[in-house]
Design the sequence.
């Protein structure tokens, strides 16, 4: 008896087939490059359902291990200590993702994510960057993709 070949489908393909394309269009994303300064993302009127990220970056390609949006901590942060003058904002960790809202306030990504989900109307233009001064961006590597899912 000969068996027909089995077609394997990923769960993502299956789910996207069930929902209209408009459901996917509710995501607003930006790839925040570690070698660029402020990079913008516009959000429409509505309610944020979820804020997520993927990817990593480094403040010194090949010398500092890649990290996520919380930046360097522990021994890795200590190793970068002598370079503290290159931080864009001394209040936050080296390599941390910073977010600037339309009023010009700067907060770390984790705080932005928590506040955005609880905001009545987060509509507006936000800017994202790595916590590294413009003059020091040249030796960075990587990018972190930010996606905001709206209801």
Sequence:
């Amino acid at each position: 008896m000969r068996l027909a070949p089995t077609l394997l489908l990923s769960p993502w393909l299956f789910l996207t087939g069930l929902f209209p394309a408009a459901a996917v269009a509710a995501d607003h994303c930006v790839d925040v490059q570690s070698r660029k300064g402020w990079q913008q993302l516009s959000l429409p009127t509505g309610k944020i359902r979820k804020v997520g990220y993927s990817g990593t970056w480094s403040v010194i390609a090949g010398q500092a291990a890649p990290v996520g949006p919380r930046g360097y901590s522990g021994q890795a942060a200590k190793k970068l200590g002598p370079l503290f003058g290159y931080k864009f904002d001394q209040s936050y960790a080296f390599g941390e993702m910073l977010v600037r809202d339309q009023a010009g306030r700067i907060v770390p990504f984790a705080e932005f994510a928590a506040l955005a989900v609880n905001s009545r109307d987060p509509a507006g233009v936000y800017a994202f960057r790595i916590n590294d001064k413009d003059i020091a961006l040249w030796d960075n590597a990587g990018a972190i993709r930010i996606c905001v899912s709206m209801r």
